[in-house]
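Review session, final week

We close the course with one last complete record, chosen because it touches almost every idea we covered. It is NAD(P)/FAD-dependent oxidoreductase, a protein from Methanothrix soehngenii with 385 residues. Go through it on your own first, then we will talk.
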Amino acid sequence: MNCDVLVVGASSAGMMAAISAAEGGASVMLLDRNLGRLHHDANTLFEGMAAVSGIEIKDCLLKKELEGMRILSPSGRGVTIPAKGYFIDRDAFDRHYLHLAEKAGVALLSGEVRSLHLEGNGRTVGLKGVQIHARVVIDASGVQSGLSEKAGLKPMRHPEDIAWAMEADIEYPYLGEEMFFQYWVGSMAPGWKATFSPAGGDRATIGVFVRGHGQNVQPFFDRFSRLFKAQKASQYKNIDRMKVLSVRRGGDPICVMPGEMVADSLMVAGGAAGQSGLAYSMRAGTICGIVAGEAVLKDDVSHRSLFEYVRRWKREFYWQYRMGRSSLQTLGQMKDEEIERLICGLSGKGLVSKGPFFKKALYAGALVTMIRPQTPYDLLVNLIR
Protein backbone atom coordinates (compact mmCIF):
# COMPACT_ATOMS: atom_id res chain seq x y z
CA MET A 1 0.00 0.00 0.00
CA ASN A 2 1.18 3.51 -0.80
CA CYS A 3 0.11 7.03 0.11
CA ASP A 4 1.53 10.52 0.28
CA VAL A 5 0.84 11.06 3.99
CA LEU A 6 0.20 8.46 6.68
CA VAL A 7 -1.09 9.83 9.99
CA VAL A 8 -0.64 7.46 12.93
CA GLY A 9 -3.18 8.14 15.66
CA ALA A 10 -6.75 9.46 15.35
CA SER A 11 -6.17 11.98 18.13
CA SER A 12 -7.53 15.50 17.75
CA ALA A 13 -4.18 16.55 16.28
CA GLY A 14 -4.08 13.48 14.05
CA MET A 15 -7.53 14.03 12.60
CA MET A 16 -6.76 17.68 11.85
CA ALA A 17 -3.41 16.76 10.27
CA ALA A 18 -5.13 14.21 8.03
CA ILE A 19 -7.89 16.62 7.00
CA SER A 20 -5.46 19.46 6.26
CA ALA A 21 -3.08 17.29 4.22
CA ALA A 22 -5.98 15.85 2.19
CA GLU A 23 -7.47 19.28 1.55
CA GLY A 24 -4.03 20.30 0.25
CA GLY A 25 -4.17 17.62 -2.44
CA ALA A 26 -2.24 14.76 -0.81
CA SER A 27 -3.43 11.15 -0.68
CA VAL A 28 -3.84 10.47 3.04
CA MET A 29 -4.36 7.47 5.30
CA LEU A 30 -5.32 7.78 8.97
CA LEU A 31 -4.33 4.77 11.07
CA ASP A 32 -5.43 4.00 14.63
CA ARG A 33 -5.46 0.76 16.59
CA ASN A 34 -8.84 1.65 18.15
CA LEU A 35 -10.48 3.33 15.18
CA GLY A 36 -13.86 1.72 15.78
CA ARG A 37 -13.97 2.71 19.45
CA LEU A 38 -11.99 5.88 20.00
CA HIS A 39 -11.99 7.07 23.59
CA HIS A 40 -10.18 10.33 24.26
CA ASP A 41 -10.09 12.02 27.64
CA ALA A 42 -9.88 15.76 26.85
CA ASN A 43 -13.41 17.13 27.10
CA THR A 44 -13.16 20.84 27.97
CA LEU A 45 -12.62 23.80 25.70
CA PHE A 46 -12.73 27.57 26.14
CA GLU A 47 -14.12 29.97 23.56
CA GLY A 48 -10.94 32.06 23.29
CA MET A 49 -8.75 29.03 22.64
CA ALA A 50 -11.24 27.67 20.11
CA ALA A 51 -11.23 30.99 18.25
CA VAL A 52 -7.43 31.14 18.10
CA SER A 53 -7.31 27.57 16.82
CA GLY A 54 -10.09 28.01 14.26
CA ILE A 55 -12.43 25.45 15.86
CA GLU A 56 -16.14 25.88 15.16
CA ILE A 57 -18.26 25.09 18.21
CA LYS A 58 -21.49 23.34 17.27
CA ASP A 59 -24.31 22.71 19.75
CA CYS A 60 -24.58 19.07 18.69
CA LEU A 61 -21.02 18.48 19.92
CA LEU A 62 -21.63 19.90 23.42
CA LYS A 63 -22.94 18.50 26.67
CA LYS A 64 -22.92 21.85 28.48
CA GLU A 65 -21.97 25.50 27.98
CA LEU A 66 -20.38 27.16 31.02
CA GLU A 67 -19.82 30.76 32.07
CA GLY A 68 -16.15 30.48 33.00
CA MET A 69 -13.77 29.01 35.54
CA ARG A 70 -12.92 29.35 39.21
CA ILE A 71 -9.36 28.95 40.48
CA LEU A 72 -9.52 27.59 44.04
CA SER A 73 -6.99 27.43 46.86
CA PRO A 74 -6.67 24.34 49.09
CA SER A 75 -9.16 25.87 51.55
CA GLY A 76 -11.67 26.66 48.80
CA ARG A 77 -11.10 30.40 48.38
CA GLY A 78 -11.57 31.33 44.76
CA VAL A 79 -10.93 33.67 41.88
CA THR A 80 -13.59 33.78 39.16
CA ILE A 81 -12.58 34.20 35.52
CA PRO A 82 -15.51 34.92 33.16
CA ALA A 83 -14.43 33.03 30.04
CA LYS A 84 -17.10 31.07 28.18
CA GLY A 85 -16.28 27.37 28.12
CA TYR A 86 -17.71 24.10 26.90
CA PHE A 87 -17.98 20.53 28.15
CA ILE A 88 -17.68 18.54 24.95
CA ASP A 89 -19.47 15.35 23.99
CA ARG A 90 -16.16 13.79 23.05
CA ASP A 91 -17.61 10.76 21.27
CA ALA A 92 -19.74 12.99 19.04
CA PHE A 93 -16.78 15.35 18.59
CA ASP A 94 -14.53 12.52 17.38
CA ARG A 95 -17.21 11.10 15.06
CA HIS A 96 -17.69 14.56 13.56
CA TYR A 97 -14.01 15.01 12.73
CA LEU A 98 -13.66 11.46 11.41
CA HIS A 99 -16.58 12.23 9.10
CA LEU A 100 -14.84 15.42 7.95
CA ALA A 101 -11.70 13.38 7.29
CA GLU A 102 -13.57 10.86 5.14
CA LYS A 103 -15.33 13.70 3.35
CA ALA A 104 -11.89 15.19 2.53
CA GLY A 105 -10.83 11.85 1.00
CA VAL A 106 -8.87 10.37 3.91
CA ALA A 107 -8.75 6.56 4.01
CA LEU A 108 -9.37 5.24 7.54
CA LEU A 109 -7.44 2.16 8.63
CA SER A 110 -7.50 0.12 11.82
CA GLY A 111 -4.21 -1.37 12.96
CA GLU A 112 -1.12 -1.02 15.11
CA VAL A 113 2.35 0.02 13.96
CA ARG A 114 4.94 -2.70 14.42
CA SER A 115 7.86 -1.13 12.57
CA LEU A 116 8.90 2.19 11.05
CA HIS A 117 11.85 2.51 8.65
CA LEU A 118 13.29 5.27 6.49
CA GLU A 119 13.29 3.80 3.00
CA GLY A 120 13.98 5.53 -0.31
CA ASN A 121 11.88 8.65 -0.71
CA GLY A 122 9.74 8.08 2.37
CA ARG A 123 9.08 5.71 5.25
CA THR A 124 7.72 2.20 5.38
CA VAL A 125 5.36 1.36 8.21
CA GLY A 126 4.81 -2.27 9.09
CA LEU A 127 1.47 -3.52 10.38
CA LYS A 128 0.32 -7.08 10.96
CA GLY A 129 0.62 -8.64 7.51
CA VAL A 130 0.71 -5.28 5.72
CA GLN A 131 3.26 -2.63 4.83
CA ILE A 132 2.45 0.98 3.97
CA HIS A 133 4.93 3.20 2.17
CA ALA A 134 4.30 6.92 2.75
CA ARG A 135 6.21 9.97 1.63
CA VAL A 136 5.52 11.51 5.06
CA VAL A 137 4.52 9.80 8.31
CA ILE A 138 2.92 11.98 11.00
CA ASP A 139 3.08 10.61 14.54
CA ALA A 140 -0.02 11.84 16.37
CA SER A 141 -0.37 8.77 18.56
CA GLY A 142 -0.26 10.43 21.96
CA VAL A 143 1.89 10.91 25.02
CA GLN A 144 2.80 7.29 25.64
CA SER A 145 3.21 5.84 22.14
CA GLY A 146 6.99 6.16 21.74
CA LEU A 147 6.76 5.82 17.93
CA SER A 148 8.84 8.86 17.04
CA GLU A 149 11.36 8.04 19.78
CA LYS A 150 11.97 4.67 18.12
CA ALA A 151 12.78 6.60 14.94
CA GLY A 152 15.44 8.59 16.79
CA LEU A 153 13.58 11.78 17.70
CA LYS A 154 13.20 13.37 21.12
CA PRO A 155 9.82 15.09 20.64
CA MET A 156 9.50 16.27 24.27
CA ARG A 157 12.18 18.40 25.90
CA HIS A 158 11.11 17.52 29.45
CA PRO A 159 9.22 14.19 29.40
CA GLU A 160 9.88 13.86 33.14
CA ASP A 161 7.36 16.69 33.63
CA ILE A 162 4.34 14.91 32.16
CA ALA A 163 1.38 15.44 34.48
CA TRP A 164 -0.05 12.00 35.20
CA ALA A 165 -3.79 12.08 35.56
CA MET A 166 -6.71 10.19 37.02
CA GLU A 167 -10.22 11.37 36.18
CA ALA A 168 -13.62 9.98 37.13
CA ASP A 169 -17.10 10.41 35.69
CA ILE A 170 -19.38 11.07 38.65
CA GLU A 171 -23.11 11.35 39.27
CA TYR A 172 -25.15 13.16 41.91
CA PRO A 173 -28.49 14.99 41.56
CA TYR A 174 -28.02 18.40 39.87
CA LEU A 175 -24.23 18.39 40.34
CA GLY A 176 -23.72 18.90 36.61
CA GLU A 177 -25.85 22.05 36.56
CA GLU A 178 -23.16 24.27 38.06
CA MET A 179 -21.96 26.97 35.65
CA PHE A 180 -18.21 27.16 36.27
CA PHE A 181 -15.31 24.81 35.75
CA GLN A 182 -13.32 24.59 38.99
CA TYR A 183 -9.55 24.17 39.22
CA TRP A 184 -7.89 23.58 42.61
CA VAL A 185 -4.17 24.30 42.96
CA GLY A 186 -1.88 23.25 45.78
CA SER A 187 -0.56 20.15 47.48
CA MET A 188 -3.69 18.11 46.70
CA ALA A 189 -2.36 17.95 43.10
CA PRO A 190 1.33 18.99 43.11
CA GLY A 191 2.65 20.65 39.98
CA TRP A 192 -0.64 21.21 38.19
CA LYS A 193 -4.29 20.95 39.23
CA ALA A 194 -7.33 19.10 40.51
CA THR A 195 -10.52 19.63 38.51
CA PHE A 196 -14.30 19.64 38.63
CA SER A 197 -16.13 19.90 35.30
CA PRO A 198 -19.96 20.05 35.25
CA ALA A 199 -21.36 18.07 32.32
CA GLY A 200 -25.05 18.91 32.67
CA GLY A 201 -27.86 17.26 34.61
CA ASP A 202 -26.50 14.93 37.28
CA ARG A 203 -23.16 14.28 35.56
CA ALA A 204 -19.70 15.78 36.05
CA THR A 205 -16.05 14.78 36.19
CA ILE A 206 -13.42 15.21 38.87
CA GLY A 207 -9.73 14.55 38.44
CA VAL A 208 -6.15 15.20 39.45
CA PHE A 209 -3.17 16.08 37.23
CA VAL A 210 0.09 15.62 39.13
CA ARG A 211 3.73 16.24 38.16
CA GLY A 212 6.79 14.78 39.80
CA HIS A 213 5.19 11.88 41.67
CA GLY A 214 5.15 9.07 39.12
CA GLN A 215 2.28 7.59 37.17
CA ASN A 216 0.32 6.23 40.14
CA VAL A 217 -1.69 9.25 41.28
CA GLN A 218 -4.43 7.25 43.03
CA PRO A 219 -3.49 8.61 46.51
CA PHE A 220 -3.86 12.20 45.24
CA PHE A 221 -7.20 11.38 43.62
CA ASP A 222 -8.51 9.80 46.83
CA ARG A 223 -7.40 12.82 48.84
CA PHE A 224 -9.00 15.26 46.41
CA SER A 225 -12.22 13.25 46.32
CA ARG A 226 -12.53 13.69 50.10
CA LEU A 227 -11.70 17.41 49.81
CA PHE A 228 -14.24 17.85 47.01
CA LYS A 229 -17.03 16.23 49.02
CA ALA A 230 -16.18 18.34 52.06
CA GLN A 231 -16.25 21.53 49.96
CA LYS A 232 -19.59 20.61 48.38
CA ALA A 233 -21.29 19.32 51.55
CA SER A 234 -23.00 22.65 52.24
CA GLN A 235 -24.52 22.71 48.73
CA TYR A 236 -25.49 19.07 48.32
CA LYS A 237 -27.07 16.99 51.04
CA ASN A 238 -25.59 13.49 51.30
CA ILE A 239 -22.84 14.23 48.77
CA ASP A 240 -21.04 11.19 50.21
CA ARG A 241 -23.48 9.14 48.14
CA MET A 242 -21.97 10.53 44.93
CA LYS A 243 -21.50 7.71 42.41
CA VAL A 244 -18.28 7.08 40.50
CA LEU A 245 -19.35 5.73 37.10
CA SER A 246 -15.98 5.21 35.42
CA VAL A 247 -12.30 6.08 35.84
CA ARG A 248 -9.63 6.99 33.28
CA ARG A 249 -5.87 7.35 33.59
CA GLY A 250 -3.39 9.02 31.28
CA GLY A 251 -0.81 11.74 30.85
CA ASP A 252 -1.01 15.47 30.12
CA PRO A 253 2.15 16.99 28.54
CA ILE A 254 1.22 20.42 29.91
CA CYS A 255 4.75 21.35 30.96
CA VAL A 256 7.12 19.30 28.81
CA MET A 257 7.80 21.75 25.93
CA PRO A 258 7.93 20.37 22.36
CA GLY A 259 11.36 19.17 21.26
CA GLU A 260 12.35 17.60 17.93
CA MET A 261 9.22 17.58 15.77
CA VAL A 262 10.58 16.66 12.33
CA ALA A 263 13.07 14.39 10.57
CA ASP A 264 13.31 13.20 6.98
CA SER A 265 9.78 12.05 6.03
CA LEU A 266 8.65 12.18 9.68
CA MET A 267 6.63 14.73 11.67
CA VAL A 268 5.19 14.70 15.20
CA ALA A 269 2.04 16.51 16.40
CA GLY A 270 -0.26 16.69 19.42
CA GLY A 271 0.46 14.96 22.70
CA ALA A 272 3.32 12.96 21.15
CA ALA A 273 5.11 16.29 20.61
CA GLY A 274 4.19 17.78 23.98
CA GLN A 275 1.55 20.05 22.41
CA SER A 276 -0.92 20.09 25.29
CA GLY A 277 -4.46 21.42 25.17
CA LEU A 278 -7.29 20.24 22.92
CA ALA A 279 -7.60 23.43 20.88
CA TYR A 280 -3.87 24.07 20.58
CA SER A 281 -3.09 20.48 19.60
CA MET A 282 -5.76 20.65 16.89
CA ARG A 283 -4.20 23.81 15.52
CA ALA A 284 -0.76 22.15 15.63
CA GLY A 285 -2.20 19.22 13.68
CA THR A 286 -3.61 21.60 11.09
CA ILE A 287 -0.23 23.31 10.61
CA CYS A 288 1.49 19.93 10.44
CA GLY A 289 -0.91 18.59 7.80
CA ILE A 290 -0.65 21.72 5.66
CA VAL A 291 3.15 21.59 5.62
CA ALA A 292 3.14 17.83 4.92
CA GLY A 293 0.86 18.35 1.94
CA GLU A 294 3.00 21.19 0.63
CA ALA A 295 6.17 19.10 0.99
CA VAL A 296 4.67 16.21 -0.97
CA LEU A 297 3.55 18.50 -3.78
CA LYS A 298 7.07 20.03 -3.94
CA ASP A 299 8.55 16.50 -3.94
CA ASP A 300 10.78 17.45 -1.01
CA VAL A 301 10.10 15.62 2.25
CA SER A 302 13.50 16.27 3.77
CA HIS A 303 14.04 17.53 7.31
CA ARG A 304 14.80 20.96 5.88
CA SER A 305 11.51 21.12 4.00
CA LEU A 306 9.38 19.77 6.86
CA PHE A 307 11.00 22.16 9.35
CA GLU A 308 8.62 24.80 8.02
CA TYR A 309 6.07 23.18 10.35
CA VAL A 310 8.28 23.97 13.35
CA ARG A 311 8.73 27.58 12.23
CA ARG A 312 5.00 28.15 11.79
CA TRP A 313 4.14 26.46 15.08
CA LYS A 314 6.69 28.53 16.98
CA ARG A 315 5.35 31.77 15.52
CA GLU A 316 1.91 30.99 16.91
CA PHE A 317 2.55 29.13 20.13
CA TYR A 318 6.16 28.96 21.33
CA TRP A 319 6.00 31.77 23.89
CA GLN A 320 2.63 30.65 25.23
CA TYR A 321 4.06 27.22 25.98
CA ARG A 322 7.31 28.69 27.31
CA MET A 323 5.49 31.07 29.67
CA GLY A 324 3.10 28.29 30.65
CA ARG A 325 5.97 26.05 31.70
CA SER A 326 7.61 28.87 33.66
CA SER A 327 4.32 29.66 35.41
CA LEU A 328 3.71 26.05 36.40
CA GLN A 329 7.27 25.66 37.64
CA THR A 330 6.76 28.76 39.79
CA LEU A 331 3.40 27.48 41.08
CA GLY A 332 4.99 24.14 41.95
CA GLN A 333 7.52 25.91 44.18
CA MET A 334 4.83 27.66 46.22
CA LYS A 335 3.56 26.32 49.53
CA ASP A 336 -0.15 26.05 50.22
CA GLU A 337 0.05 29.08 52.54
CA GLU A 338 1.47 31.22 49.71
CA ILE A 339 -1.22 30.00 47.32
CA GLU A 340 -3.89 30.90 49.90
CA ARG A 341 -2.54 34.46 50.24
CA LEU A 342 -2.24 34.89 46.48
CA ILE A 343 -5.75 33.72 45.65
CA CYS A 344 -7.22 35.67 48.56
CA GLY A 345 -5.50 38.81 47.25
CA LEU A 346 -6.71 38.24 43.69
CA SER A 347 -10.30 37.50 44.70
CA GLY A 348 -12.69 40.06 43.25
CA LYS A 349 -10.16 41.45 40.77
CA GLY A 350 -10.62 41.22 37.01
CA LEU A 351 -7.87 38.95 35.72
CA VAL A 352 -8.85 39.01 32.05
CA SER A 353 -7.76 41.74 29.65
CA LYS A 354 -8.16 42.12 25.91
CA GLY A 355 -5.39 42.16 23.36
CA PRO A 356 -2.47 39.97 22.29
CA PHE A 357 -0.89 37.27 24.44
CA PHE A 358 1.94 39.39 25.85
CA LYS A 359 -0.42 42.20 26.85
CA LYS A 360 -2.63 39.73 28.71
CA ALA A 361 0.40 38.16 30.39
CA LEU A 362 1.74 41.54 31.53
CA TYR A 363 -1.63 42.57 32.93
CA ALA A 364 -2.06 39.35 34.92
CA GLY A 365 1.59 39.46 36.00
CA ALA A 366 1.20 42.99 37.37
CA LEU A 367 -1.77 41.94 39.52
CA VAL A 368 0.11 38.92 40.88
CA THR A 369 3.22 41.03 41.60
CA MET A 370 1.21 43.42 43.78
CA ILE A 371 0.35 40.49 46.05
CA ARG A 372 3.49 38.36 45.74
CA PRO A 373 6.40 40.66 44.73
CA GLN A 374 8.93 37.86 44.25
CA THR A 375 6.85 36.26 41.47
CA PRO A 376 8.56 38.06 38.52
CA TYR A 377 11.97 36.91 39.78
CA ASP A 378 10.76 33.31 40.16
CA LEU A 379 9.19 33.40 36.70
CA LEU A 380 12.37 34.77 35.14
CA VAL A 381 14.55 32.12 36.79
CA ASN A 382 12.24 29.35 35.61
CA LEU A 383 12.01 30.91 32.15
CA ILE A 384 15.81 30.87 31.83
CA ARG A 385 15.93 27.27 33.00
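Two points worth writing down before the exam:
The chain has three domains: 2-42+90-159+257-316, 163-252, 321-384.
The mean pLDDT is 91.
Good luck, everyone.
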